[in-house]
Amino acid sequence: MIVIASLVIGALLGWRRAGQLGGNTRDRLQYAAGFALAFSVIGLFLTVLLDRFI
After folding, report:
1. Domain count of the fold of the chain
2. With CB atoms 3.0 to 4.6 Å apart as the test, which of 2, 10, 20, 45 could cross-link to 36 if both were Cys?
3. Per residue in 23-54, pLDDT tens?
């Protein structure tokens, strides 16, 4: 569940960041995909750590 939430949050943040930099739709999609992947990897590690220690 953490992975899905972090994926969505990352995509939204990437979309917003590209918009702040003046990007068009393709730029926004690329930033959204990149941020979503990065945040989902972080969420995956967080999920594994929480599962191990709790």
Report:
1. 1
2. 10
3. 999 999 999 999 999 999 999 999 999 999 98
